Amino acid sequence: MTVTKEEVRVRGAELAEKIKEFIHEGNICRIIVKNAHGHTVLEVPVTVGVVAFIAAPVVTAVGALAALAAEWSIEVERDEPGDENT
């Protein structure tokens, strides 16, 4: 498997909604939330099977964070199926 990274910039209330979207996608292995200065504020490993279990507390924490600052960066690590023969 290959891990790819994607970074998305959001503002305020969009933070919680975007994290919900990423969690429900299913091929996410880690979500990292950074503030406008690039400092990591929240890092959540997402494991298959516990997505529903961690979704509610993570979104609640993210909602509280969203009220603290205007700009956020969400870095997402995805498991992508790769060519196993190379």
Automatic annotation (TrEMBL):
Pfam families: DUF4342 (PF14242)
Keyword list, A-Z: Membrane, Transmembrane, Transmembrane helix
Sequence ranges assigned to domain DUF4342 in this UniProt record: 4-78
TM annotation in the entry: 46-70
Domain of life according to the entry: Bacteria
InterPro entries referenced in this protein's UniProt entry, alphabetically: DUF4342
Designated name of the protein: DUF4342 domain-containing protein
